[in-house]
Amino acid sequence: MKAHLTRRYWFSASHRLHSDEMSAEENRATYGKCNNPYGHGHNYALEVTVSGPVDASTGMVCNLADLDGFVAREILSRYEHVNLNTLPEFTRRVPTTENLCTRIFEIVRRGFTQAHLEKVRIEETMMNSFEYAGGAEVRH
């Protein structure tokens, strides 16, 4: 019997959407107010969905404390209250929420082995959410 578990987490971070490969005019046209030189912040809601067989003895897909500990250690401590532009994974990539979503997926996929990672979903605003469920290998 396979079941899915989705856990929600929250963190705040800032970013500036800007590509060094574009002119100032192209950046403004592409990213609008998100290209503000001083950046802007979001209160992100992160959902991590894992799946697997329901363990007969525990009745769980995985231990929630282990998932929570992994996410706190590997994701929240890395992204909470930081400017995403200053992180190594965003030195050559624009720190869009799409790119953040794929990066978090890769961290969880590589490091959390107690259950199969199905997807990562991030709500950036009430109007914007992003989801990644794997696919072509992500290059960083």
Descriptive report:
- With 140 residues, the protein is of the alpha+beta class.
- The chain has one domain (2-132): 6-pyruvoyl tetrahydropterin synthase/QueD (Tetrahydropterin Synthase, Chain A, 2-Layer Sandwich), CATH 3.30.479.10.
- The protein has helices at residues 24-31, 64-79, 97-111; strands at 2-15, 40-53, 116-123, 129-132.
- Helix 2 packs across helix 3.
- The chain is elongated.
- It starts with a strand and ends in an 8-residue tail after the last strand.
What is the compact description of this entry?
With 140 residues, this protein is α+β, with helices and mostly antiparallel strands. The protein has helices spanning 24-31, 64-79, 97-111, and strands at 2-15, 40-53, 116-123, 129-132.
Strand content: 25-35%
Number of domains: 1
Mean pLDDT: 95
> Measured on Cα atoms, how large is the radius of gyration?
17 Å
> Major sheet: size, sense and barrel closure?
4 strands, antiparallel
Helix and strand content put the structural class at: alpha+beta
At CATH level 3, the topology is Tetrahydropterin Synthase, Chain A
Blueprint (SSEs and pairs):
Elements: E1 2-15, H1 24-31, E2 40-53, H2 64-79, H3 97-111, E3 116-123, E4 129-132
Antiparallel strand pairs: 1-2, 2-3, 3-4
Question: What keywords describe this structure?
Answer:
28% helix, Tetrahydropterin Synthase, Chain A, elongated, alpha+beta, four-stranded antiparallel β-sheet, 140 residues, 3 helices
